[in-house]
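Slide 14.
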Amino acid sequence: MNKYSKLPTVKTGWLLSSFAIAMLLSGCASLGKGAAEAVLEKSENEDTRLCQVWGEPFTGIEADLVKNKETKVLFVHGVGDHIAGYTTQFLEKLAKELNLNVRSEGQKNIELNTPVFPDKNLGNLRVTHLLNEQNGKELTFYELTWSEITRQEKALLDFDTSGEYDFRRAKINGMLKKFSNDTGPDPIIYLGQSRVPILAVYAQSFCWMATRNWSDLPNSGQHVCMGLDDSSADRIAKDNYVIISHSLGSRIVIDGTQRIASLLAAPEKHLSSDQRAKMTLSKKAIEALQSKRLPLFMLSNQLPMLQLGRELPEVAGQEASYCDPKGANYNKRMLSETEIIAFSDPNDLLSYGIPPGFAGKYIDSRLCAKITNVNINIAKVMDAFGMADLANPMQAHVGYDTDDRVIALIAKGIGNAGTSPLVKKRCEFVKEVK
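Slide 15: predicted structure.
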C-alpha cells in the first residue's frame, strides 16, 4: 500500500503540475459542509467508475497456480520513500482473491548487494510465502525496496521541511511540500548516477527469484546472487514469474529487464573481467529463460512520459526477427513473451495509456512485448452541482494497489473462463487484433 493513500482528506479541488521537478497541489473554492456531504454521499452510493480493457485477453496469476509448481511475484515500488512491508495491504487482498489461506509466520529479508557495487547497500528484498493447504497451490511474493539508494540524495532537501523553515508555511501547503520533496526528486535522481545501482538491484531481485525457491533463500543478512547456473535451469523452466510495478517502478522494470537482456547477450558490456569471472551465466539456464512468458502489471503506468528525451533501446523494431520461431534471431531473444498490462486512470495526471506502435519502437525487441491497456477510474468522480466534475488526482495516482477491481484483474485476468464476477460486472473488455 502506498503511504500517501492515508493523507488527510481536504474538501477542495486539486491541480497537479509537472512531476519532472515536483508535485504541487493547490486548493480552489471550498464547498459548504452540508453541500459537500451531499455530493460525497451521492458519489459513494452510485459507484459508476469506469473500467475498460483494450487488448488481448490475459489470465492473471491464478491460472499459473498449479500444484507442485511455484509462482513467484516481484513488486517494484515507484516514487517516494518506502520501507519494507509497504505491500502488506495489497498482498493480503491478493491472497484472499487467490484463496491462499496460509502464509509463512515471518518474512525473509535479504539485504541486496551486487558485484558491480560491492561496498554499497542497495536496498531490501522482503520475501513472503503463501499457500493453500487443501490444493497445494503456492506463491512466493518478493517485495523490492530500493529507496535506500535515493534516500541519501534527497536528504539535501531536509532543511526545506525542517522545524527551522516549515513553520512559515500554511499547514496544508506544508503537507504538500513534504509530499513534493519526497516524490518529485526520484525521477530526476533516476536519470543521474543512481540509475545503474537501481537497475542492478532490480537484476539482483530477478536473480534471486529465478534461482532459488522459498526454502532455499537465506533468512536474512547481506547476500549477492551470482547468476544463472545449470542447477537453476530446471527451476526456471518449471516456475512461473509475475512482476507488478507502480509509476516510476514500471520504467525501472522495463529498463532493468532490457539491461538483463543485454547482459545475457554481451556480459562484457556491463561487467569487468573480474566480475565476469565471479558471475555464472549458464547456456542451459538462459535457454530455459527464453521459454518463459512474463506478465508485467504496471500500475499508474508512466512509460510514455518517462521515455521522453531518452535513448532508444539497444534492439528495436525487430520483433519478427526475435519473436517469430522462424526469425533469424529467435534463439537470441530473452523471453518468449512479455505481457504488459498497463493500468492508468484518466484523472491520474501522471499516468498514461500505451499508444499503438510504442512497443515496437521503445521496448527492446528481445522482450517480445505485447500490450494491453486498462483504462480505469481509481478515484471517484463527483459532480459538483453540474458545474464541474471533480476527482482527486492524488488518490487517482496512489490507489491502484488497493482497488478491488485491480486486484481481481491481476489475480484472474479478463476475457477467460476464470474471470472474476466483479470484473465481469464492472469492466468492459474489447479485444484488439492486428
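Speaker note: The two ends are 36 Å apart (CA to CA).
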